[in-house]
Design goal:
The complex is a heterohexamer, with 1 copy of chain A (about 250 residues), 2 copies of chain B (about 210 residues), 2 copies of chain C (about 220 residues) and 1 copy of chain D (about 55 residues). With about 210 residues, chain B is α/β, with parallel strands linked by helices. Chain B has one domain: P-loop containing nucleotide triphosphate hydrolases (Rossmann fold). Chain B is built from 5 helices and 9 strands. Chain B is globular, with a radius of gyration of 17 Å. Chain C is an all-alpha fold and about 220 residues long. The two termini of chain C are about 25 Å apart. Helix content of chain C is about 85%, strand content about 0%. Chain C has helices at about 1-15, 20-35, 40-60, 70-75, 75-80, 85-115, 120-150, 155-180, 190-215. Chain C has one domain (about 1-215). Chain D has one domain (about 1-40). Chain D contains 2 helices and no strands. The chains are: A mainly alpha (about 250), B alpha/beta (about 210), C mainly alpha (about 220), D mainly alpha (about 55). The interface between A and B is medium-sized, with 18 and 12 residues. The complex binds protoporphyrin IX containing FE, adenosine-5'-triphosphate (ATP) (2 copies) and magnesium ion (MG) (2 copies). One adenosine-5'-triphosphate sits at the interface of chains B and F. Protoporphyrin IX containing FE binds near residues 112, 119 and 179 of chain A. Chain D: Belongs to the CcmD/CycX/HelD family. Chain D: This is Heme exporter protein D.
Chain lengths: ~250, ~210, ~220, ~55, ~220, ~210
């Protein structure tokens, strides 16, 4: 039986690991280039635009804080979509996608947390408050770490993926909490002024670098995500071949 | 009434343990799985019971009226390596719980009769944890008698049983078959069943490539 | 299903000591807090409801992680998974039994704890009511963690970590409903109704997710 | 209001984390590729290629 | 004996991610507290040490009750009982492994938690010190309960009644030593020394009692 | 060198299970316990291993130098119904732990050799929980090889083993006996041991008055 026939009978022929690897090899250089380009443009814009009359220079923190905060949530959303793929279609690539996204999501959440803190000290006069937005992001961070730990604790990868998938989906309730916490509990944190119904309510002077940086960070996320997925596929391939080698040795010996 | 499996394949971890397993058992028939340690007997039984997802293939049960059921577990008794009894509760409490949980059927016997049938009448008031290994196994077997299910899936049922226990077990299985039941058992010891089919498991099948390769 | 409920209750009395452990844990917590806040009775009574709620939350975690692991270890879980009765129902009943064994005693003991914390009658009543309504939600959320723990050889802390964040909304509304009952301007009903809604929500989501996890971890 | 420390602190930290994650992902990929090459060198090959070789 | 220590540590890592878990668990517990008592920083910093100590107790309780039960269930306990090496030593090493795996990460993480709870430097230092010194006592006391749980399979209730009240003195002296370090008039040393004494006392009594209970297991 | 039991009696719960059991095993000898389920085989083995207090009587081991030891457990391997292995750890880690915990001896074999000896070389890197029932039992048996102990106390050692496993087991026991070891085994199946003594357990002895009578 050849590989392709299995792939076609079992998975939609769009996405079997081998085909994914070929695709990744083709598009990764382009994505990396695009990411670098966006970052150059974004960084240039963010340091050349005017400071805010109210917030002064610190407004530049926004160009990092806001995109990474969005990506923190998007990372989890991607994991949730993958989780559905795992549970409903039992698709191995979905397993890989969820597993690869967790550390990336954690990293972006960490950046959002730390830049938020660094912004909070001059703006609110404190590094940290237990307000709803901040805490829910903190919880998101904990959940990323917990899911990474869970994945490591189970060594059968497909079982680990299915178990994590259930938790990922249950944990998704946190995402709307993050998004709407500022509206539900009136707190220190800014409420949405870009991603909201009725269009952005923010000066285009700030909107431009913000959007470019957002695109740059998003491109970075996807580049890394595809790379991490590729690594994971390779890792499993190595493990499978090692097992087979052990078994063959066992049989011959 | 029959139980049929077509072209089953199952995976443990990342490896295919077996593939292309098919069988068909009519009412009153028995299939005995044999094979070396680690050859996949328990795996196959768990797939049939619906406790493990098969990689390919299907299992189905067709009852006397011709209705086909895919979830064979629902009409089966499964006796695994572990006895599914709580050592803190008494035997009677354990059996009574399973009888009520699995659903009473009028064709089934009472708890005392079941204990009698496995040769241990009169000690159902003891906590399950106080029994010897063989006594525990016998009561685990009594669980199959307290509610009627047409299919019995047994994993090394006679482990820890003494000679009289083996005999008793064979008789109970034969009685179940006479009533039209179907029996699927994995074993290393001869079970003493009349006219049972045998399926030899061979272990790891290497024909198909894995997902990651 | 009553059979399962009865069995689990019986087991918790025979084996785990569920009923008392929660209350005792709770008394320990209550014994320690005054050292933190000092002998300031006013302050104590102010944070009282919060402490009772946090205690209830933590007490619910004790033993919850083994809800399904014990069933797996002796093979009972296999039979439950094979059963026709929807698995969700089985999970629900097990949650109920666990709640009756560990959280209900806490609810019943909460007036006593309230007295220790120098809380007013209204506050005590409100705490008891919100606990009664809200604590099942914690158990339902915990059940998801417990189901996941089946895949892990030893659940324990990891499960609590995954589950605790999800209980935060319950805690928030439970506590704020209690405070609303005591402090005049804020209305009691809105947070209380949200609490009820949360419990109902998790009563659906929790067992469903737990059943899903159990189905996917069996081997 | 300049708050240079906070601004550059943010950019610095973000750069640190993104670069670290990128490097880690890249290094992980290299390690995996080396492992695969080592396995290939030791004669263990993917079953599909083995089958095609008629082994 | 290092073999046993290493094995137990390895088990705790395999099962749930190891050192990271303790910290995460703790962070989660602490993150929950402000939702209960509200974001009042002054109050948080005041109850901070008590919360950290309660967290340590909870972390020790989760999983501790299965310290020997897991060994019994797979038959390892039999082999350990047959061994020449004094059983007390085996128990001691198992306690040590459990402490390293669950309490030590908390001790190490406590400064971070202190920051979250807005505690002063002195308070953070004192909490860390008292935790380091006092938390083993909780583990030792818990070990007795765990051993009794094995000896009396139906002694669940007894275990909680036995263990939790015994931990109260440890908790009280731990917390009060911490407050003594922060608040001027009260001296730090007396409660701290009592804490040390308690730990030493339970380090002797705990394993000995646990070993005695294990030797007398009913089967 | 010999292992001797004199006039042993043991109690389970409130009842005397057996009494007046005596035997003496010289170096190289084997004793096989047989008897019905619940007749007290496991109980006797646990008494000999020191895991259960006898009611009356004594067990002692005298080594080649003539020193007598009362705590026979210390120089014995005990293989009970359960395997004493952690399913989370790999087989190699499990065996390595027991080797170090039980104390290395120069006469023992290495872990790989032991795995080879039970017919499962090459899979010691797998977690123990991933193995089939028979494979687990085989590795539990490998535990007896990695450190040398003169006395082996085995409770239904061949449960779950396939035919080749039974054979392998008999060979390993014979090798142990040839080296001068003593073997005490409870079983329901013929173990294939040459010239083994047999002790039939009869279960509940009611001859002596209980404590309360
Ligand atoms: C550690 C602290 C902080 C955290 C965890 C945090 C988290 C977040 C998150 C998750 C978002 C995305 C929300 C959405 O898309 O609706 C966001 C957006 C934002 N944050 Fe923060 N933040 C923190 C501190 C701050 C501070 C101190 C400021 C400024 C005073 C700030 C200003 C903003 C702004 C302006 C937005 C954009 C809102 C929008 O236009 O949608 N944040 N933050
Ligand atoms: N923990 C216990 N408490 C009370 N009674 C017990 C306990 N364990 C066993 N018994 C009783 O002691 C008797 C002997 O048990 P034992 O396990 O020694 O039997 P056995 O000969 O090994 O049987 P099997 O062949 O079934 O393993 C049994 O009747 C059992 O009911
Ligand atoms: N949970 C698991 N994860 C990964 N592999 C497993 C798991 N359980 C079993 N296996 C592997 O699957 C194979 C088949 O196991 P199975 O239990 O079906 O064998 P068996 O025929 O029942 O053997 P036995 O006669 O020893 O009971 C074994 O080689 C085993 O190593
Ligand atoms: Mg099997
Ligand atoms: Mg026995």
């Amino acid at each position: 039986m050849s590989e392709t026939s299995l792939a076609i009978t079992k998975f939609s022929d769009l996405a079997n690991p081998t085909r994914f690897l070929a695709l990744a090899a083709r598009i990764l250089p382009w994505m990396a280039g695009f990411t670098a380009l966006c970052f150059i443009m974004g960084l240039y814009l963010s340091f050349t635009t005017e400071g805010d009359y109210q917030q002064g220079e610190t407004v530049r923190i926004m160009y990092i804080h806001v995109p990474t905060a969005w990506l923190a949530m998007m990372g989890y959303t991607i994991m949730s979509l993958s989780a559905i793929g795992t549970l409903v279609w039992r698709h191995p690539l979905a397993d890989v996608s969820a597993k690869a996204a967790a550390p990336l999501g954690a990293a972006f959440t960490l950046i959002a947390l730390v830049t938020g803190s660094l912004w909070g000290k001059p703006m609110w006069g404190t590094w940290w408050v237990w307000d709803a937005r901040l805490t829910s992001v903190f919880i998101l961070f904990l959940m990323y770490l917990g899911l990474i730990a869970l994945n490591r604790a189970i060594d059968d990868p497909s079982k680990a993926a299915r178990v994590s998938a259930v938790l990922i989906l249950v944990g998704f309730v946190n995402i709307p909490i993050i998004k709407f916490s500022v509206d539900w509990w009136n707190t220190l944190h800014q409420s949405a002024s870009v991603l909201r119904l009725g269009g952005p309510a923010i000066d285009p002077e700030f909107l431009r670098p913000l959007l470019v940086m957002a695109v740059a960070f998003t491109a970075l996320f996807f580049t890394l995500h595809i790379m991490a997925m590729r690594n994971e596929i390779w890792r499993r391939r190595v493990a499978a071949q090692r097992r087979m080698a052990a078994r063959l040795a066992n049989r011959e010996g | 009434m029959h139980l049929a499996a077509a072209n089953l394949a199952a995976r443990r971890g990342e490896d295919l343990i077996f593939e292309g397993v098919s069988f068909r058992l009519e009412s009153g028939e028995a299939l005995v799985l044999t094979g070396k340690n680690g050859s996949g007997k328990s795996t196959l039984l768990r797939v049939v019971a619906g406790l493990l997802h098969q990689e390919r293939g299907s299992v189905s049960f067709t009852d006397a009226q011709g209705n086909t059921l895919r979830r064979v577990g629902e009409i089966s008794h499964y006796l695994g390596h572990r006895n599914a009894m709580k050592s803190e509760l008494t035997v009677a409490e354990n059996l009574d719980f399973w009888r009520r949980f699995l659903g009473q059927t009028h064709t089934a016997v009472s708890i005392d009769e079941a204990a009698e049938a496995v040769g241990l009448g009169g000690i159902t008031h003891l906590p399950f944890g106080y029994l010897s290994a063989g006594q525990q196994r016998r009561f685990a077997f009594a669980k199959l008698l307290i509610t009627y299910r047409p299919v019995w899936i047994l994993d090394e049922p006679t482990a820890a049983l003494d000679a009289s226990g083996d005999h008793l077990f064979a008789e109970l299985v034969e009685a179940h078959r006479r009533k039209g039941g179907i029996v699927l058992a994995a074993t290393h010891q001869p079970l003493g069943l009349a006219e049972a089919q045998e399926l030899r498991m061979a272990g790891f099948s290497h024909s198909g490539p894995g997902v990651w390769e | 299903m009553t059979a399962l409920l009865l069995r689990d209750l019986r087991l918790s009395i025979r084996a785990g000591g569920g009923a008392l452990i929660g209350v005792l844990f709770f008394l320990t917590v209550v014994a320690v807090i005054p050292f933190g806040v000092g002998p300031d009775l006013a302050l104590l009574s102010r944070i009282g409801p919060a402490i009772v709620w946090i205690g209830a939350l933590l007490a619910a975690l004790l033993g919850l992680d083994r809800l399904f692991q014990a069933e797996r270890d002796d093979g009972s879980l296999d039979l439950m998974l094979m059963q026709e009765t929807p698995l969700v129902l089985t999970v629900l009943v097990k949650c109920l039994a666990h709640w009756v064994a560990t959280s209900l005693p806490l609810v019943i003991a909460s007036p006593l704890l309230g007295l220790f914390m120098n809380m007013s009658e209204t506050a005590i009543g409100a705490t008891m009511l919100t606990l009664l309504v809200g604590s099942p939600a914690i158990t339902f959320i915990g059940a998801v963690g417990a189901a996941v723990a089946v895949a892990l050889p030893r659940g324990g802390l990891l499960v609590s970590i995954l589950v605790l964040p999800l209980t935060i909304p319950v805690l928030i509304f439970g506590v704020s409903a209690t405070y609303a009952a005591v402090e005049e301007p804020s209305p009691f009903l809105p947070p209380f109704l949200i609490l009820v809604a949360l419990t109902l929500f998790f009563a659906v989501i929790g067992p469903a997710a737990a059943a899903l996890a159990l189905r996917n971890t069996s081997d | 209001m300049t708050h240079t420390f906070y601004v550059y602190g943010s950019y610095g930290f973000a750069a640190l984390v993104t670069v670290a994650v990128t490097l880690w992902t890249w290094a992980d990929g290299r390690a995996r590729r080396n492992e695969l090459a080592a396995l290939e060198a030791s004669g263990i090959r993917r079953r599909s290629t083995r089958a095609k070789d008629g082994e």
